[in-house]
Write a structure and sequence with these properties.
The complex is a heterodimer of chains A (622) and B (201). Chain A is built from 23 helices and 23 strands. Chain A is an alpha/beta fold and 622 residues long. The two termini of chain B are 21 Å apart. Classes of the chains: A alpha/beta (622), B alpha/beta (201).
């Protein structure tokens, strides 16, 4: 749905929208006034929409340079009474965990909603941590929507809940909630013209130890109040089987959907308790549900977060209801659920059978289709140049430290430019650690957005502790992987946030006193060869910033820069281009290479890759 | 009318899968039918496999169990074959015959003949319809209309719960400028698949 249409949607009409779109609509109806984020799948669309609407609503929205800063922006605005929101992918919560854990102690005046978007099965992530433990760790309330409608309703009500308890609220989504579509009935967007006001009161707002000891106690008192709300939450529902059952299921989030569909499919007669507010968990309601059943199955994705609590409740109340879940091997903590997992679990638990209706097609070796760097992607040419330079200076085994972005796709052959990866910004710290451990130069790759996110702080350390390390900044002027959001290096794009200023990466690096800092055109293989050779032989920290706009993003706004073709008379069919460069626009035409004109971006880098100069520009006016 | 229908849509990033899925879902909602649908965003969109699962009717979860799809709509022959675990006997597998070979085929991966894949599907007991989508799009004077052809072909599948009228009116609303050519492409696809379906009965 277009952002404008989401804003213009009328009350009482049903719309078929993404979970993330539902969150935005819910937030607007909940009186949102300020939001900040760093983009991360599966939460990115929330920011894209608020960004597109930033001139059309009175909501202040910004892409911050990382999740920690976004958390601080939202927490402090909420302290001034504004309804505020920050949202991030699950691993972003780790970055923001420091301000988060104290924002919880300090509490809030204006409604403060924090969204953690988990990615079970790691569709676009480096791990599948269960962010619900942030609610347990911090002690704040948490809501877990199961579909777009709940994402909308819970976001909307989270602001009220937050103001009632004076606590931030964690809203936890997963990929299948954030990126699924279902129908949502809209309400009205109120005019929220509440003015910000900060009443100075250091004992309330400054978490020095003397205040923090009191704050922690207050947090526990707020938690008692939250528990009461959880027992009576509108999002706590029990669906009774027609005949009444001795067996029950407790579920939350998207897992609930699979439970219901599987139970319908199997015609299983079983009671289902759905918990929407999963922190604090409604212990009394859980105890009652346990008492009413002989056997209870806990169905939740990832860690046994609810199951642990249910087992504690059973022990506290002294119940011997049989409890099944992940801790007794009924389910795995691995990966997201799907209908098959639930159908198989329920059928074996309840002794029901489903007629198998499989088909058995002939086995065929299907070519795999992994995601790849796009035609014209400047990351490909930079990796190609660095690898060549490493061979030239006798460092072909140098460890390449990767980072988080499209450029992680450089892991695939023939580029093979990712040897170790932890998290956003880690290319620098890990490059320095490996260089020290191995006693030789290492090469790190980071993007422009990732540079501002957290590579910069690593670079301060690299300079200060004088590490022997080359950092290549793959500067494509955009945060590409998450859908082309602006970052501090390109703040002018699309008119961005009012008066945003661009920050020059080269100047920032020079400001640290790093002596070797060079910029280079990421399409110019000859220039890169010279600079990378020099940078690799330099002792100490060197930084090369290779610049070219993201080809995919560029094509959205401009005609392609050109078109290239293979001259079949000159091509010897040696295959060097395929084996070393592997642009997706190449294909094999007989024993020679050809270029698909519909895929060719026109960067022309392949001209220098061909050893017999068989690739030539096409005059597009021919 | 309110019969349940489970549909898998598959293909390659950039083929317009999410556009087609959105048209289908919104048309169903406009006709008062419940829909739940999953999409893929992020990393896999960079030339990777894109799958959208759509459950029309009395469902809550956005994913389809193995051997449960009523239809598979695929924009690419290999991607149609790869997702056959969702098919059961007599599932309609409507796929574009035109291959989009993955880059690995440059380095030696072999790409199977679509006609052979079609034959294997039929032998396995699914109702496979190989659609010459580009050819039909050209007939409709709409070179870029392959996805509309495919959508039209899907609409001819028996028991498909969303009416052609609803789909056509949404296509018209979504593409006001290319309305005529898109509906022409849609109809080409529909007529092609209808002749196949009629031969079954």
């Amino acid at each position: 749905m277009k952002p404008d249409a989401l804003l213009a949607g009328v009350s009482d009409k049903k719309y078929f929208i993404l979970g993330n779109e539902a969150i935005v609509r819910g937030a607007l109806e909940g009186g949102l006034q300020l939001a900040a984020t760093y983009p991360g799948t599966p939460s990115s669309e929330i920011g894209d929409i608020l960004y597109a609407l930033s001139e059309k609503t009175n909501v202040y929205f910004e892409f911050s340079n990382n999740e920690k800063v976004a958390m601080e922006i939202a927490a402090s605005a909420a302290a001034c009474g504004l309804r505020s929101m920050t949202f991030m992918k699950h691993v972003g919560m780790n970055v923001a965990a420091d301000p988060f854990m104290t924002a919880v102690y300090i509490g809030t005046e204006g409604g403060f909603v924090i969204i953690a978007a988990d990615d079970p099965s790691m569709h676009s992530s480096q791990n599948e941590q269960d962010s619900r433990y942030y609610a347990r760790l911090s002690g704040i309330p948490m809501l877990e929507p199961s579909n777009s409608e709940e994402a909308y309703l819970m976001t909307k009500s989270a602001f009220e809940l937050s103001e009632r308890l004076k606590l931030p609220i964690l809203l936890r989504t997963t990929t299948r909630v954030a990126h699924s579509r279902s129908a949502v009935k809209f309400g009205e967007i109120p005019l929220n013209d509440r003015k910000a006001e900060f009443i100075k009161n250091p004992s309330k707002w400054v978490a020095i130890p003397a205040n923090a000891v009191r704050m922690h106690k207050e947090l526990l008192e707020k938690r008692e109040k939250a528990l009461e709300l959880s027992e009576n939450s509108e999002f706590l529902k029990i669906f009774y089987a027609s005949a009444g059952s001795q067996k029950g299921i407790i579920s939350s989030g998207c897992a609930f959907n699979y439970v219901v569909d599987a139970a319908r499919e199997l015609k299983a007669d079983v009671d289902i308790m759905k918990i929407g507010m999963t922190s604090p968990l409604p212990e009394k309601a859980i105890a009652d549900f346990l008492k009413a059943h002989d056997e209870v199955l806990i169905a939740e994705e990832l860690e046994p977060y609810i199951e642990e609590a249910v087992r504690v409740v059973a022990q506290k109340v002294g119940l011997n209801t049989v409890i099944h879940g992940k801790l007794d091997g009924y389910f795995s903590v691995l990966y997201e659920y799907n209908p098959d997992i639930l159908i198989s679990a329920l059928s074996s638990w309840l002794g029901l059978k489903l007629e198998a209706n499989k088909v058995f097609p002939e086995k065929v070796d299907l070519p795999p289709r992994p995601p790849v760097l796009c035609p014209g992607c400047s990351h490909r040419s930079v990796y190609y140049a660095v690898k060549k330079a490493l061979r030239k200076v006798g460092m072909k085994d140098a460890v390449c430290l990767s980072d988080i972005g499209c450029y992680t796709l450089g892991i695939a052959p023939p580029l093979s430019a990712a040897d170790y990866l932890l998290c956003m910004g880690s290319s620098v710290g890990t490059g320095c650690g490996m260089s020290k451990a191995l006693g030789r130069k290492t090469v790190g790759f980071t993007g422009d957005s990732t540079f501002f996110h957290s590579s910069l702080s690593g670079l301060i350390n690299a300079r200060h502790n004088d590490h022997d390390f080359l950092l290549v900044v793959l500067d494509n002027h955009i945060t590409a992987m998450t859908g082309h959001q602006p970052n501090p290096g390109n703040s002018g794009r699309l008119g961005c946030v009012r008066n945003a200023k661009s920050i020059d990466i080269k100047k920032a690096v020079e400001g640290l006193g790093i002596e070797f800092v060079k910029e280079v055109d990421a399409y110019d293989l000859d220039a890169m060869a010279a600079i990378f050779n020099e940078a690799l032989l330099f002792k100490g920290v060197s930084v090369v910033i290779a610049k070219r706009p993201c080809a995919l993003d560029y094509s959205r706004f401009h005609a392609k820069p050109g078109l290239f073709r293979v001259n079949r008379e000159k091509c010897t069919g040696c295959g060097v281009c395929l084996k070393t460069y592997a642009c997706p626009a190449f294909y094999k035409d007989g024993d020679k290479t050809a270029i698909d004109p519909s895929l060719c971006f026109g960067c022309g880098v392949c001209v220098s890759v061909c050893p017999v100069k068989s690739i030539e520009a096409v005059n597009i006016h021919e | 009318m309110n019969k349940n229908f489970q549909l898998v849509i598959s293909g390659v990033g950039g083929q317009g899968i999410l556009t087609v899925a959105d048209i289908l879902g919104t048309s169903a909602i406009n006709e008062g039918i419940n829909v739940v649908m999953s999409e893929v965003h992020g990393m896999s969109q960079r030339g990777g496999v894109v799958i959208s699962e759509m459950k029309i009717g009395d469902f809550l979860s956005p994913l389809i169990a193995d051997s449960s799809a009523d239809a598979i709509l695929s924009f690419e022959p290999v991607e149609a074959y790869r997702i056959l675990n969702k098919a059961r006997r007599n599932t309609f597998v409507v796929f574009n015959l035109k291959p989009t070979p993955p880059p690995g085929t440059l380095a030696g991966d072999s790409y199977p003949d679509p006609a052979v894949l079609l034959e294997y599907m039929k032998r396995a007991g699914v109702n496979a319809i190989g659609v010459p989508a580009l050819e039909l799009a050209c007939k409709a004077d709409n070179l870029r209309g392959e996805n509309m052809v495919m959508l039209g072909a899907l609409s001819a599948v028996p028991n498909f719960p969303v009416s052609s009228a609803a789909l056509e009116s949404l296509i018209a609303a979504k593409f006001p400028k290319a309305k005529k050519n898109n509906i022409a492409a849609f109809n080409e696809g529909r007529i092609f698949a209808e002749s196949y379906v009629n031969n079954l009965q």
